Here is the input.
Amino acid sequence: MKAPYAIRRAFNQGNLKRYDISNFGATSAIIAGFLGVPFIPIRGNIGTSMFQNNKMDLRLMGDPFTGEKITVVRAWRADVVVIHAQKADRLGNVVSYGTRGVADEFGSMGSKRGVIVTCEEIVEPEVIRSDPDRVIVPYFKTLAVVHCPWGAHPSACRGYYGLDIRFSQYQGRYERHAELLPHFLDEWVYGCADHAAYIEKYKSKFDQAGLDRLKPVLGFKPKLDVDYGYHDPAVWKGVPMYTDDRLKAYEEALAAKKRGK
Amino acid sequence: MADYKLTELMTIRCAKEIKDGEVVFVGVGLPIVVVAYAFATHAPNMIMFTEGGAIRATPPIALGITVDDPALFTNADAAFGMLATMAALQRGEVDVAFIGGAQIDKYGNINSSGVGNWTQKESWTYFAGSGGANDMATSGKRVLAILPQDKKKFVDKVDYITTPGYLEGPGTRERLGMIGGGPTCVVSTMGVYRFNDVTKEVYLAEFFPGQSIEKIKANCAWDLQVSPNVVETTPPTADEVKVLRGIDPTGFYLG
Here is the structure.
């Protein structure tokens, strides 16, 4: 129930401004950005303190068709979106599966400049093209692809590792005290040259066993047999039009009538 | 009488509010355990919607910690994102919206945004905020809430309305065009509450074993109405507790 401590302190000190909105309010704002429209109607938030305090995002208007009052939320479009995904190719096609966030999928597409992608694995474009249903960001939206194993840590990456609740709690205990937090940041953020160094640091402090505990239970490959077969229209070459006696008689009668006029 | 913890009593009592075959929308926390328990007992045909976007005809493979926890999506009947399950709320397809919170008032309005005076930022203690609770309580056909009780949590007026109950009383929800019916039941750490059909005010319907009406009234900041038919909550049986502990064997949620 308590918001992260460092963020709470920043709110209280006025270093961060907070705009309250419900989850579906935020989802809808992202969808409006995805659709390229300025706002979108929603059912929630009305009647609450969020609606009173967040005029930046939430307003009331009359439905132009019925005249009834409806809450609308302003579209959100980020300049650049940074996401982590399971797989991407060198062109920038991004594959994500299992647990897809609205921000990953629709927030990325709604971004003004494009998307920076970190991923567990880089695969060949023809591998991704063999299963394009799973692409959440196509290459034309992608600014950069970064191969970054464990890139979502301490969050989960489906099929690769689970949520590191113990590390999150450890971080939380540092965050709780303003004077302790800089030590955490020095050690885990500024003190690590890159993400690989961060993972090495993790192993030296909490052991390989700490990472091993995050391994997912595997054996959940899809059993649905899918073949994205297509039909080649070239087979119609030289095939005469289908007809029958009824259709022929009707068309001939119609032609005769026209000639008679 | 079975040996049980307060969280176990609350979970089992809450689960009994779910009817078999209903569409139940849950966040994470104790509600996940309640739903898994209902699946395992009297509501095997329940349809579970999660905030992260899973739709399930079966209980989750493990208790999730976050709304996007892979455990909630594994072998789901559909794994959409938040857009799809929350859109079902707006279409009016959710029977039970199951939420928590930090503060509640006599009209069932819930605060999960913070305590203090909102206009004085330095003194305001921020909480996590709505999450999906607001959307669930606005559009779910009925709302079930579970939250701890003391005099600072059961207040005359919440410091901030994050999630609408009956707002200012009868007719307010209708005037604002809300499609959901509002809260019907609150389970606290002390008892079970329902709402008066006419006044929309919450009243005490059951007190937990070991509690008394006086003690409960003392832990409520307004003059709490008590049902003339108020009863002690039936404690869980040994079998019920056994099933529940099988669902959360490490006590992650139940303690």
User: Anything to note?
Assistant: Chain A has nine helices and eight strands. Chain A touches chain B through 46 residues (CB under 8 Å).
